[in-house]
């Protein structure tokens, strides 16, 4: 396969060549879109801590929504998990906040409906979401529950005739301040099982307040949600979700997507550091010629290359249908840890300029902390893998 001049400098082992020609064309289209339409916006809005709502219209024309969902997007067939992962990587390479906005909508919210909804529910909600005429959010984490939310969910659902009444609170819910559809997870008081509900914007009793003062993902509008006697029709309960086991099927796939985001963030920071090292002069020559700087760059490239290889195989396992929880957990724990190293080394190469937003790397450095924490902490994902390889549960 011929490679154009726009291959990434970080793709040292030529992983993009594993994509089929038509899929690589989609990836390159995403790369151009993120570079020309999104990159000019991000520093300004990251500094303000605001979401640029005009980018929704930009995404509508990019042809990137609903690619994993056959029959609901512009493409006749669903694409491979390898392309889906590389698209998450590509978006995060430009900006983690924008990638997260898109991932929450196109991944968590749409996948919840696609995986957990009935055929009628899919046809009712997904076309408008695929066109980005309606935006989705995913409400799982709670103010007092993160890693233990599977067994300790406090948001409740009570059946009353043909409706459900939801009460509780959610926190860190991306897109929730402006989403049209929010997938809310709640514990059924009758059978103590977790169920999913699509709550539409404007439903009485539903309130979303933007979380202020964040040092990461500042473009993402995370919200604290309160649900006070929110009535949802039975027709808006996801019909194929009857326990947390069904929810885990959704999280398994999205956790792998976060690992791809971590790879993209590594690449974005590394590219900035590599370019800066070639331009910044000290002692009469570019710092790229200094041994200690080359050491940081090579270690960064090693982390990128190793992580990329792991994620390629993860995508193959998904495509083969033999993908398990411990596979995505190992990827999330390992790749986000390597990401933390790379963003720190990249910032170090910039010296004092590394803490200034104008140079870009400070944004990557800060956003890495959010990716490191969400979709299961390193510790929780480690315990999932530990149980798989030893047969012993260390959860308490």
From TrEMBL:
For biological process, the GO terms are:
fatty acid beta-oxidation
Q: Give start and end of each Acyl-CoA dehydrogenase/oxidase C-terminal domain.
A: 247-389
Domain Acyl-CoA oxidase/dehydrogenase middle span(s) in chain numbering: 137-230
Which InterPro entries would you find in this protein's record? ACX4-like (IPR045008), Acyl-CoA_DH_CS (IPR006089), Acyl-CoA_Oxase/DH_mid-dom (IPR006091), Acyl-CoA_Oxase/DH_mid-dom_sf (IPR046373), AcylCo_DH-like_C (IPR036250), AcylCo_DH/oxidase_C (IPR009075), AcylCoA_DH/ox_N (IPR013786), AcylCoA_DH/ox_N_sf (IPR037069)
Transmembrane domains' residue ranges: none
Keyword annotations from UniProtKB, A to Z: FAD, Flavoprotein, Oxidoreductase
In the record, the note on similarity to other proteins reads: Belongs to the acyl-CoA dehydrogenase family.
**What molecular function does GO assign, one term?**
flavin adenine dinucleotide binding
- Under which name does UniProt file this protein? Glutaryl-CoA dehydrogenase
Q: Where is the Acyl-CoA dehydrogenase/oxidase N-terminal domain?
A: 21-132
This protein's record includes keyword Cytoplasm:
no
Which cofactor does this sequence's record say it needs?
Answer: FAD
List the PROSITE patterns hit by this protein, alphabetically. Answer: ACYL_COA_DH_1, ACYL_COA_DH_2
Q: Highest lineage ranks of the organism?
A: Bacteria, Bacillati, Actinomycetota, Actinomycetes, Pseudonocardiales
């Amino acid at each position: 396969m011929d490679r154009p001049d726009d291959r990434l400098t970080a793709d040292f082992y030529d992983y993009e060549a594993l994509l089929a020609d038509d899929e690589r064309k989609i990836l390159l289209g995403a790369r151009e879109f993120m570079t020309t339409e999104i990159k000019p916006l991000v520093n300004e809005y990251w500094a303000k801590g605001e979401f640029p709502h005009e980018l929704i219209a930009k995404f509508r024309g990019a042809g990137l929504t609903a690619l994993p969902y056959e029959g609901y997007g512009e493409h006749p067939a669903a694409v491979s998990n390898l392309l889906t992962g590389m698209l998450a990587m590509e978006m995060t390479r430009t900006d983690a906040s924008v990638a997260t906005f898109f991932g929450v909508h196109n991944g968590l919210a749409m996948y919840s409906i696609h995986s957990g909804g009935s055929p009628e529910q899919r046809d009712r909600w997904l076309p408008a979401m695929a066109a980005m005429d309606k935006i989705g959010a995913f409400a799982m984490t709670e103010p007092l529950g993160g890693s233990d939310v599977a067994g300790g969910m406090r948001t409740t659902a009570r059946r009353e005739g043909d409706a459900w009444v939801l009460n509780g609170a959610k926190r860190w819910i991306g897109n929730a301040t402006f989403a049209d559809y929010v997938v809310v997870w709640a514990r059924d008081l009758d059978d103590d099982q977790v169920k999913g509900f699509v709550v539409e914007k404007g439903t009485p009793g539903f309130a979303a307040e933007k979380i202020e003062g964040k040092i990461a993902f500042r473009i993402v509008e995370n919200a604290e949600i309160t649900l006070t006697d929110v009535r949802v029709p039975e027709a808006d309960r996801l019909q194929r979700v009857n326990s947390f086991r069904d929810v885990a099927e959704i999280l398994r796939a999205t956790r792998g997507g976060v690992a791809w985001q971590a790879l993209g963030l590594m690449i974005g920071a590394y590219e900035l550091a590599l370019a800066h090292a070639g331009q910044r002069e000290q002692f009469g020559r570019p710092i790229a010629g200094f041994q200690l700087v080359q050491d940081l760059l090579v270690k960064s490239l090693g982390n990128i290359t190793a992580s990329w290889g792991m994620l390629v195989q993860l995508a193959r396992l998904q495509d083969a249908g033999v993908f398990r929880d411990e596979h995505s957990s190992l990827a999330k724990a390992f790749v986000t840890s390597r990401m933390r190293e790379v963003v720190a080394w990249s910032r170090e190469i910039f010296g004092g300029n590394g803490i200034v937003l104008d140079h870009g790397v400070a944004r990557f450095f800060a956003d890495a902390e959010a990716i490191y924490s969400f979709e299961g902490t390193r510790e929780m994902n480690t315990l999932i893998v530990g149980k798989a390889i030893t047969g012993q549960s260390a959860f308490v």
